[in-house]
Amino acid sequence: MSIDLNTLKTPGPTITALTKPFWDAAAEGRLTIQRCKDCSTAVFYPRPICPYCWSKRLAWHDASGKGRLKSFSEVHKPGNPGWLPAAPYVVGLVELAEGPTMLSFILPGTRSLQVGAMLRLAPTAIGGRVLPAFKQVEFGPEEKPK
Amino acid sequence: MSRSKGAIVGIGELKPQRLTSGVTTLEMIAEVSRLAVRDAGLEPAAIDGLLVGPQVGETPQHVPATIAEYLGLAPTMADVVDLGGASGAGMVWRAAAAIEAGMCEAVLCVLANNREEAAPRSPNRNPIREFDVPFGASGANISYALLMQAHMAEYGSTARDFAMIAAAARANAQLNPDAIFCGKPADVEAVLASPMIASPLHLLEIVMPVAGGEAVVVTSAERARSLPKAPVHLLGAGEKVTHRAVSQAPHLTSGPLKSAMARAFAQSGTQAGEMDLLSLYDCYTIMVATTIEDAGLCAPGQFGAWLNDHDLSHKGAKPLNTHGGQLGFGQPDLAGGMTHVVDAVRQLRGDAGERQIGKAGLALVTGNGATMSEATALVLGAA
């Protein structure tokens, strides 16, 4: 994949008043998710009520940007034609350190991907907007996985 | 074994086609409904219950009324069952429950779809559209590829293990002249050599979309006695809906069918190992793999060894999807799930012709919708 992802004509998010804080943060390179003030559970995707206790007391917090790869797929035949010039590319299920799982774009790294890989937030301009993509954590000689 | 909760007394099926031209879904519903009601030996006026699927892009609201009017029915129970590929199986127990509740006596359960060349893209507005599509994940292929990759990572299952499911479906389809892949067998090597669509999912592990229609008629066990065809009894049912987007799945290597099947077995007083026919929803190979494991036919992660140990043809001890499954028959959209019901009825009637299984007493039918998230299981029994 050597093309500039930002030139893709891909469908963007269908933003609502409720989800706007998430996408505003994404544009600034941050990943912000909700946390319930009553049951303390982190919530993704954004909702008007906590899906665990139905409290309405949800507050936005920036996530750590750390995650673990639960699964991934190298997409050769995209479902949306806007993605064709980027194929093959990788999407994955990212279990955020805060708890919830989100689907995201996984940037190519130097090593082959494995389920369980540690990931880090890597905001990336795709299709004319910055999205909270992820990439595999590259371990230096002194930085080994624990 | 428990008493009958109701009986399937009529079936109808349209031969799948790759494309239709200038045909509405309503027209196809009318055709397949007529087949099922005739097969049941009933007059249209005897149909007093109607269960239909959603009609995306054609009739957004008032679907049962639109179809009842079109068919000239005046049902005393009418509803939409919107459970994706589980809709067909989900209709069968709802029909029986409505009859038991005294709401109606004979229920037409019908699903059909046209497939026109230039179908419009639906203007969805939901969490998947907002939070998955912008990252490059559109459509079911990627969702099931993620489930398959997770299974491989957790259990070490191999591409060959999964390919066996597609090859077995193609093999069974050779005995079904209506199957879209009749005359086009594909062995494990051919499945593995087919193009990679979304790793680790190959093209031949994915159903072929077709136009088609399927319908069944359900009535009470008592009423069934006066009808011409041998009734096929509903002995147990289970259902569970857990999520919509694959990112929100509570588990990636086990699904809601696990508890749906457990309930269906408990209601019917049966066990997975007693089934003479496995009619398992197969939109993708991974769906069958997970269902075999969730049914308890083998330990989690062991479906590959189980497949190697069993003959899945109509001659074998574990016939699986003798109509070819949707992988061999084609997937007429939501009606695809109903093919598993219709084939099980044929087998339990002893009406499956060249592909008739030996002992045909009990069948497990599963339905699955969305991303391994909508699940219905039925245990059917021969008269």
TrEMBL record, chain A:
Gene3D superfamilies: 6.10.30.10. Residues 23-58 form the ChsH2 rubredoxin-like zinc ribbon domain. Signal peptide: none annotated. Residues 60-120 form the ChsH2 C-terminal OB-fold domain. It holds the Pfam family zf-ChsH2. InterPro entries: ChsH2_C, ChsH2_Znr, NA-bd_OB-fold, Thioester_dehydratase-like. PANTHER family: BLR3430 PROTEIN (PTHR34075:SF5). This is DNA-binding protein. It comes from Mesorhizobium hawassense. The lineage of its organism: Bacteria, Pseudomonadati, Pseudomonadota, Alphaproteobacteria, Hyphomicrobiales.
TrEMBL record, chain B:
Residues 238-381 form the Thiolase C-terminal domain. It holds the Pfam family Thiolase_C_1. InterPro entries: Thiolase, Thiolase-like, Thiolase_C_2. Transmembrane segments: none annotated. Gene3D superfamilies: 3.40.47.10. It comes from the Bacteria. One of its GO terms (molecular function) is acetyl-CoA C-acyltransferase activity. CDD domains: SCP-x_thiolase. PANTHER family: ACETYL-COA C-ACETYLTRANSFERASE, NON-SPECIFIC LIPID-TRANSFER PROTEIN-LIKE 2. This is Thiolase family protein. The lineage of its organism: Bacteria, Pseudomonadati, Pseudomonadota, Alphaproteobacteria, Hyphomicrobiales.
